Amino acid sequence: MGSLQHCCCQLPKMGDTWAQLPWPGPPHSALLLALLLLATGVMHSDAGTSCPVLCTCHNQVVDCSSQRLFSVPPDLPMDTRNLSLAHNRIAAVPPGYLTCYMELRVLDLRNNSLLELPQGLFLHAKRLAHLDLSYNNLSHVPADMFREAHGLVHIDLSHNPWLRRVHPQAFQGLVHLRDLDLSYGGLAFLSLEALEGLPGLVTLQIGGNPWVCGCTMEPLLKWLRNRIQRCTADSQLAECRGPPEVEGAPLFSLTEESFKACHLTLTLDDYLFIAFVGFVVSIASVATNFLLGITANCCHRWSKASEEEEI
């Protein structure tokens, strides 16, 4: 297995392949045609049909699933359209790993040990449509994680129990995204900005997360309610874990009335009343302290006088 650092995009040169073939003498048209076909076959074999060890390759589908791999296989066929690395023990993907595979449409990395993905991994994956990152250990989705992968239609980030943060610009530019699965993670909050730039979103799965349904969640819930007819969501599975007064309540059962306290505003009269109460409380406190001081002083004098009389 070769090194991942070499450029997998280089094709054999025609001259190099031609030079390795025996030259029998004066050229004949039939012989030249046969040699040309042979050279073309050699080039195609070197460039497009090499299959990594422990993987199976057929019709542009490379299946390396369930092989107990600890690292991604190098030197995939360059015309790979469907790559499955599912059910392995892969903990990291090298930067630039997908650079050479311009035809890639489906990437399955579910059920591995991924903690994060390198920046710019999908920079050249312009035709990637389906991405499965479920059942991993991702902790956050950074900004521009899917940069340049504008063809993405389906993203599965479910069952990442340590996933606690999705950057507001994580899905920026994914105008064709239809299905997004963020279920069964560790999300307590999701920015509205992360979703409102997805005009084609049809299915959104967010159940199984420990949502904190405080004032910061109101914009997202209002947006979801307005899109509920066009966006299918797992409303029965999405529940609030806090604050205590709404714990266990279905996320989509919260209405504007539930967030009424978030919009309470004080008038000038309210401020004046609060200032007056504060002033009265401070005066009362001073008076109380004064009376306590006088009482303590009187008790001290009475106690001293009693001691002198006994003597």
UniProtKB/TrEMBL annotation:
Annotated TM spans: 271-294
Predominant cellular place of this UniProt entry's protein: membrane
GO cellular component: voltage-gated potassium channel complex
Limits of the LRRNT domain: 50-82
InterPro entries for the chain: Cys-rich_flank_reg_C, KCNMA1_auxiliary, Leu-rich_rpt, Leu-rich_rpt_typical-subtyp, LRR_dom_sf, LRRNT
Leader sequence residues: 1-47
A single GO molecular function term of this UniProt record: potassium channel activator activity
Gene: Lrrc55
Limits of the LRRCT domain: 209-263
One Pfam family in the UniProt entry: LRR_8
Quaternary structure and partners: Interacts with KCNMA1.
UniProt cross-references to Gene3D superfamilies, sorted A to Z: Ribonuclease Inhibitor
Membrane-topology descriptor: Single-pass membrane protein
UniProt function note: Auxiliary protein of the large-conductance, voltage and calcium-activated potassium channel (BK alpha). Modulates gating properties by producing a marked shift in the BK channel's voltage dependence of activation in the hyperpolarizing direction, and in the absence of calcium.
Keywords assigned: Cell membrane, Disulfide bond, Ion channel, Ion transport, Leucine-rich repeat, Membrane, Repeat, Signal, Transmembrane, Transmembrane helix, Transport
Subcellular compartments: Cell membrane
Stated name of the protein: Leucine-rich repeat-containing protein 55
